[in-house]
Amino acid sequence: MKISGIDIEKNIDNIKKQIETDKTLSPSMRAAIDLLLLIVTLLSQRLGLNSRNSSKPPSSDPNRKKKPNANSSNASGGQLGHKGTTLPLDERPDINHKIVLDRTLVSV
Fold this sequence. Notes:
Blueprint: E1 2-3, E2 6-7, H1 8-21, H2 27-47
Antiparallel strand pairs: 1-2
Helix pairs in contact: 1-2
C-alpha cells in the first residue's frame, strides 16, 4: 500500500531484513521494534477501509459523493386550511421553585 508516495509494505520488509541481520540488537529491542512494525502494518491496512469493504457506515467514507436531495412538488408545512394549535401556558403551575442566587461567588 502506498501513502503519499511511500510504499509502506516494501519499507517494512526492508526494516525486518535489517533487524534480522543486525546482531547487536538486544532481544527486548527486537521485540519492541517488531511490535511497532505490527502496529504500523495494522494501521496502514485500516486506511484502505471504506463502507464497501468493511462494516463502516457510508457516512464515514472520505470524500464520498453525496446524492442531491430530490426537490418535492409538495409545499412544506401543514395541510391547507388546518388551524395549528399549541398548548397554552398554565396560569397556576403545580410546583413553584424559588431560586436564590449567591452573586458573591460569581467572578467577573
